[in-house]
Amino acid sequence: MNASDAGAARAAEFGLVHLTPEQLAEFERAGAYAAQLLSRLPRDFGLDEEPAHRFRAGRESSADATRPGGAA
Amino acid sequence: MTDLHWLTVAEAARLIRARELSPVDYAEALLARTERLNPTLSAYIRVTRERALDDARRAADEVVRGVDRGVLHGIPYGLKDIIDYAGLPTTAHSRILLDNVPAEDAEVTARLRRSGGVLMGKLATHEFAIGGPAFDLPYPPARNPWDTTRFPGGSSSGSGAAVAAGLVPAALGTDTGGSVRNPASMCGIVGMKPTYGRVSRRGVVPLAFSLDTVGPLTRTVEDNALLLNLIAGADPRDPSGIPGVPPDFTADLRRGVRGLRVGVVRHFYTTDMDAHPEVTLAIEDAAQTLADLGAQVDEATLRPLSVYAAGNRTILLSEGYTVHERWLRERPDDYAALTRQRLLPGAFIRAVDYLQATRLRERLVREYAETMTRYDVLITACSMDPPPLIEDAAEIERTYGRQARTVFNLLGCPALSLPIGRTVNGLPLSMQIAGRPLEEATVYRVAHAYEEATAWTSHHPALD
After folding, report:
1. Predicted ipTM?
2. Do B341 and A20 touch (CB under 8 A)?
3. pTM for this predicted structure
4. Is the Cβ pair B330, A18 closer than 8 Å?
């Protein structure tokens, strides 16, 4: 398998099966850019450091209303 | 009277209420100016002339009948073309959405329409709010009114160019990694990225769900606060919306800065990045002006810019790829090359990388809250460089990441770009003022005090 076939195979793993040779080159450069970006991402988190944007419940009362034996 | 095209929203509203200015005459004057200047500026991709005149006639009739819809009644505005207006195409400046005609207004559009605003048209953007000034799209890129060979910033490029050129007194843009503040910075106007969730995103083409904000671009601070008053507020159909009634963002405008604590984040533009000397000098002058006005100005320290940039880019690219995955698979040729190049790195970001970035975000938000117990606002650079030449792709690429805007998208807090001078070549210089989450009013207060002391926002490009 030559380099361009390998690039096309890699792109196909992402469902990108319609890329032209020029676009495959863009895809390869994108991979290099992402690797560089992610190498700068801190990963030294403690066990208690949770992600942002986790689910937060609205109000207790709405859950109570649907719970068996809950608020009528 | 000031030339109609340089009227502020506040001035025009006063004149319309006093029946000294007809909304129809006002709209016709701006349409004529648009007809003359837009072929050079390419700020609008679609001018809605007949709709504007209909809106203006309706407003004029209502004013005569004593109906008062508020400060925007009869005032022209523009919308970045990723914001829905029912019955008009929302193209996102892309071939992919050329036939996309929404049946419903975006929430922000609905609010401006209820306020009696006069839609002048849909404004140019970088494709899907992420590309860049591309020349392989159905519409040309907008150009900078201060020098039409220059980049007007982006992605809300048409919004910045149209407001700065006097085609319209106010426009809406969107800001995910700086896209309101960058054109404000490059075009010498005022641009606010509000607190995340402050303004509904419903009906706005998404770029990154957890970072996207809608914000106003205007020529003055007061106008900006007036526009935010109109568009802010909870929307039950936007899951990110902040519950409750927002404050009046104009309430503190004239309180001055005496006693306020201003932190200068100098390391962003001197150590983390080396800003253009004229940018650095202008920010130092601005800090001194605030000190002269009575603010307590001190140096503030946050994490290095590179940490914020890594977090913001990881989240933005991952969420952006999520939005575009299907089209990149099925229609890659329909994107501008630059847009494709910006989006494709998102494919390589794994779930674990994304989650580490959101853990970083939580940590940085916590640290920022602690820092902001010592300051009321922070000031720092917006763009590190004056506007580059629009056709110099290498220079556009070099300066693309040279900014301190993504910090405040990641943190979710309000940040505003404000004009603070001109380069020796006459190009706009700017700074950012950032506040605590939900404290846009304090940001506007500081910006207004500076504006009153310096009057940079009353300078306009010579286009006539």
Report:
1. 0.91
2. no
3. 0.96
4. yes
